[in-house]
Amino acid sequence: MAADGKAEVPAVDFVLGGARSGKTRLAETRARESGRDLHMIATATAGDAEMAERIARHRADRGDRWTTHEEPLRLADALGRAAAPDRIVVVDCLTLWLTNLMFDPAAPDPGAAAAELAEALAGLAGPVILVSNEVGLGIVPENALARRFRDLQGRLNQTVAAVADRVTFVAAGLPLVLKDRTGS
């Protein structure tokens, strides 16, 4: 426990796994256990009715203890605004953020955006938990767009893992800590 009564948490906590692996649940649990004000940066956009319903369900499931910031493109800027010593920020998720970057013609280059994110993570005023999909465990995708996405996602995950204090892989709801510089 820190002097301010808050639980010790890594400055940058990175949680990744497959679809429906339990990674967001783990990130939200860690955030609640930190004792800090809860902030969510949601990167999803409601492009259709199904996605709008998913977004509404996630918001309702989190409840009103969470302050939600919606940011599909300028993630480093949003983190700079949201991070504070008395808060913990969860970013859900880097996979949708990358998708947004790939398909918005006004968005920055995904590689440059990943580098900007890594730089921003080093100077945040409070802890952050980033959630991402691990997409490189399956077969090589058949089409060029899917292969490009898989490659960019892999590089993004490696970039974030390199600067993270803790990296956890989640499968079937079970966390496997891959890296932990916190000593916990």
Structural class, from helix and strand content?
alpha/beta
Q: Kindly state the mean pLDDT as a whole number?
A: 93
First and last CA, distance = 11 Å
Q: From the alpha carbons, calculate the radius of gyration and give it in angstroms.
A: 16 Å
Briefly note the CATH topology name: Rossmann fold
Lateral strand order in the biggest sheet:
3-2-4-5-1-6-7
Number of helices: 6
Beta percentage is: 15-25%
Strand tally is: 7
Supply the number of structural domains.
1
The assigned CATH architecture is 3-Layer(aba) Sandwich
Low-pLDDT regions: none
- Main beta sheet strand tally, sense and closure: 7 strands, mixed
Write the element-wise H/E pattern from the N-terminal end onward: EHEHEHEHHEHEE
Give the topology.
Layout: E1 12-17, H1 23-33, E2 37-42, H2 49-62, E3 66-70, H3 75-82, E4 87-92, H4 94-103, H5 110-122, E5 128-133, H6 144-163, E6 166-171, E7 174-180
Parallel strand pairs: 1-5, 1-6, 2-3, 2-4, 4-5
Antiparallel strand pairs: 6-7
Helix pairs in contact: 3-5, 4-6, 5-6
